[in-house]
Amino acid sequence: xxxxxxxxxxxxxxxxxxxxxxxxxxxxxxxxxxxxxxxxxxxxxxxxxxxxxxxxxxxxxxxxxxxxxxxxxxxxxxxxxxxxxxxxxxxxxxxxxxxxxxxxxxxxxxxxxxxxxxxxxxxxxxxxxxxxxxxxxxxxxxxxxxxxxxxxxxxxxxxxxxxxxxxxxxxxxxxxxxxxxxxxxxxxxxxxxxxxxxxxxxxxxxxxxxxxxxxxxxxxxxxxxxxxxxxxxxxxxxxxxxxxxxxxxxxxxxxxxxxxxxxxxxxxxxxxxxxxxxxxxxxxxxxxxxxxxxxxxxxxxxxxxxxxxxxxxxxxxxxxxxxxxxxxxxxxxxxxxxxxxxxxxxxxxxxxxxxxxxxxxxxxxxxxxxxxxxxxxxxxxxxxxxxxxxxxxxxxxxxxxxxxxxxxxxxxxxxxxxxxxxxxxxxxxxxxxxxxxxxxxxxxxxxxxxxx
Length: 452
Prior knowledge:
Elements: E1 2-6, H1 10-21, E2 25-29, H2 33-40, H3 51-60, E3 64-67, H4 70-76, E4 79-82, H5 97-109, E5 114-118, H6 126-141, E6 147-151, H7 161-166, E7 171-174, H8 178-187, E8 198-201, H9 203-234, H10 238-246, H11 267-280, H12 286-298, H13 301-309, E9 318-322, H14 337-347, E10 351-355, H15 360-367, E11 373-375, H16 379-383, E12 388-391, H17 403-409, E13 414-417, H18 424-429, E14 433-435, H19 444-451
Parallel strand pairs: 1-2, 1-4, 2-3, 4-5, 5-6, 7-8, 9-10, 9-12, 10-11, 12-13, 13-14
């Protein structure tokens, strides 16, 4: 099938590449000439495991190409995917200017029937606005061309997006026309061979489903972080609590890991947007407000632990930081807890020496050259002469380090674990003072402070 993808960012590039992998003829359109030139050279503007090789293979096979020519893109595809950004506006609502600009461009150039598909994460009612934008443009042209608008939200996890698309747990399709349901069913048939994963519903329900899914996952994370702060004050171990409640099949173990807060391009933006949508229809979504507030507060937990350990005397200290991206297997720094920690440390007069397997270039792009930030080439280099180590992103290489080497390089054997990946008893046995999230701290320094 002929498919056009508007937007060659994270969602658009993954969607287009995976559809090409299944034999479709895909054109990705983007107004960013530099990005298109990069893609045509085989350079991938984002980090996503497995994506680069798949792009190269499908480009070489002639199934995937990139262009800035909007008219070419509109003429090419029966399916016109809108996969452009919807950044948060100042009031927290999703900014739809790019979505509607694409809709008008499609209306300007279309000459035959098109299925226009909202792939971007958009508020309820966006399909109506897209339909209106296309219709108004066609009317100005004096053209009568049939089209349908579909909601087909993405459910891609950064770091696992290829698997999520190729082996989806569900494909949500919101339509108001049975014909378009069948067309989408045919497009997604190669991904449904094991069993039918396509769930058809009305358009507004499909639009709400995407926000509801992300809000639910964010709620689980904030709930566990709330409990971890309570465990800290009660002397309980949140990991024992997690195992205890996760064994209940009604709760399960997914997304109940306490930590330093969630980040990325989806959860923070989508929770705010859904909260704003609720206000727009006269409903106060108090739970969503709390989820957001808890997460904002959680991003300061590690700094507060560092501040307490050093008695507020952080000026002149050097803190080693393992992890910068908001999660493993991505270079995405948007809303990353590491940013809140670093900025708090700098304000307190401390220096940061940091390493991340993929996010170093992005960190430098955001912060530039600073005297109080040193980006180093490996985890061991970050430790050299540091006063403490903070683990904030649970990359695999950080899960089982050489602790003797860690202890040797640090000025003091102090570790702050923002993802609870180490065992407290083991850390104490290795001679570390160890702080985690929602777990009783261990080590000589902790004992001495309590005795004092």
